Amino acid sequence: MKIPFNKPPYTGNEEKYVIESMKSSKISGDGEFTKKCHKWFEEKLNCKKVLLTTSCTHALEMAAILLDIKEGDEVIMPSYTFVSTANAFVLRGAKIVFVDIRPDTMNIDETKIEEAITSKTKVIVPVHYAGVACEMDTIMDIAKRYNLFVVEDAAQGMMSSYKGKALGTIGHLGAFSFHETKNYTSAGEGGLLIINDENFVQRAEIIREKGTNRSLFFRGMVDKYSWVDIGSSYLMNDVSAAYLWGNLEKADEINQNRLNSWQKYYDGLKELENRGFIELPKIPDGCVQNAHMFYIKVKDLEERTALLDYLKRNDIYAVFHYVPLHSSEAGLKFSLFSKEDIYTTKESDKLIRLPMYFGLDNKDIENIIQKIKIYFKGKVDE
After folding, report:
1. What SS3 class is residue 181?
2. Which residue among 36, 69, 199, 274 sits deepest, i.e. has the most Cβ atoms within 10 Å of its Cβ?
3. Do 228 and 211 form a contact (C-beta atoms < 8 A)?
4. What is the average pLDDT value for the chain, to the nearest integer?
5. Torsion of the alpha carbons at 73, 78, 82 and 85, rounded to the nearest 10
6. Cβ 58 vs Cβ 209: under 8 Å
7. Paired strand residues for 124
8. Dihedral through CA 278, CA 108, CA 289, CA 103, nearest 10?
9. What domains can you pick out in the chain, each with its CATH number?
C-alpha cells in the first residue's frame, strides 16, 4: 500500500462548515467564517491585526506593497526558499540579495546578514524553514540598527514560536500559508497577513480590497467608498475560510498528532545518525516547532537520488525540497548572492522530506523507518 507524501488536514468538521457557508447569503470575502478565523488568530497570536488572503504568496505581495518597495531597493533573504518569497518583492522592482544558510536549521545565517546590507537595503526576510525559528533577536537587532523592515515568511510556521513569541508576530509583518501541504489548510489554497505595526493596518485593508476603502465604508468610517490606493483582490472567499475554521477548531489536536509522528521518526532514526549515515533535524534552544516536516540529510546528491528511488520502489513517496533560487534562470536575472555559497547548495542537495501529515499511521512510520534502515544496511554489506 502506497504511503503518500502528504494528505490535506481533515478533521471531520470542515464539511459541516463549508455547507453552512454555501447556504448562507454571503460566500465572498470577509463573511462570518472569515471573521471567526480573524478573531481566533488575533487572540492566539496576540498581534495587532490579521487578514486572510488567497495565498501566502499574496500576503507577501501585500507586505511588499505596504513597505513601498520600488525599483532599486534591495531585499535580503535566503536562497533556500520557495519562489514566492523572492517574487513578491521582485514584482515591485526590488533586487534580491541572497545570504547563505545555517547547516543546522537550513535557516538564513544571521551572522551573514550585516555584511550584505548596502545603502539600498530596505527589508530582511527571514524564512522559518520547517517551522523552526530563525535567530530573530539578532535579526531584529540588525534591522533596528540599520532602520530596516523585517517580514517573516512563516509559511510553514503556524503553532511554532521563538522565545515564547509566535512566528510571524516578531517582525513588522508576517505571513502564513494554508496550502494543502501545510499543517492547516483553507481547502487547498490560502494565506494570512500578520500585521504587528498598527501603522500598516488601515492601508493593508485598502490594498486587500483592490485599493478601495470599502472596509472603512462598511464600518461607517467613510460616507462612500472609492479607489484610494494601489491594490488587488486578495480576499479569501468565505467557503475556504469555513474549511479553515474546521481545522482551527482542532488546531491543538492536529499539532500534537504531528509532533507525535515527528518524535517517532526521530527516535526510530537516531541510531542511523549515531552511526554517521544520516543527519536529523536540529531544534535550537528557545524554539518550539510544529512538526511541519520531518527531513533527513544524507551524504550527498547521489545518495539522495538513490534513497529516494529505493523508497519509491517500496511505495514510500518521499521528496527533495527547494532548488536554491540563486541558481535558477530568474534568480540569475533578479538576484545576487552575497559572499560565498558555502552551505546553501551543498546542504539542499542532501535533504529528503519524509511523509508527514495529520493522521499518519504509526505503522506507516515504522515501515518507513525500517525501509531506511534496510537501505543503509545494504550499503554496509556492499
Report:
1. coil
2. 69
3. yes
4. 96
5. -30
6. no
7. 76, 150
8. 10
9. 14-248 (3.40.640.10), 251-381 (3.90.1150.10)
What's the burial of 87, exposed, middle or buried (CB within 10 Å: 0-12/13-18/19+)?
middle
Rounded distance between C-alpha atoms, residue 378 and residue 96, angstroms: 44
Angle, helices 14-22 vs 32-45, to 10°: value is 130
**Location of C-alpha cell 507577501:** 60
**Integer Cα distance of 201 and 208 in angstroms:** 11
Contact between 335 and 96 under an 8 Å Cβ cutoff? The reply is yes
Rounded CA-CA distance 97/99 in Å is 7
Query: Which residues are registered as beta bridge partners of 264?
Result: none
DSSP state for residue 100 in the 8-state scheme: P
Phi, psi of 354 (to 5 degrees): -90, 160
Each residue's pLDDT tens digit, 105-143: 999 999 999 999 999 999 999 999 999 999 999 999 999
Residue located via cell numbers 471531520: 12
Look up residue 298 and give its amino acid.
V
The three-class DSSP label of residue 223 is coil
Query: Confidence class of residue 382 from pLDDT cuts 50, 70 and 90?
Result: low
The string of pLDDT tens digits covering residues 321-339 is 999 999 999 999 999 999 9
Q: Write out the three cell numbers for 123.
A: 527589508
Per-residue model confidence as pLDDT tens digits over 190-237: 999 999 999 999 999 999 999 998 877 676 777 678 999 999 999 999
Cα four-point dihedral sign 11, 9, 159, 169: negative
Length of the chain: 382
Instruction: State the CB neighbour count (10 A cutoff) for residue 123.
Output: 23
Could you count the other beta carbons within 10 Å of the beta carbon of residue 251? 17
- C-alpha closest to that of 281 among 164, 119, 191, 160: 160
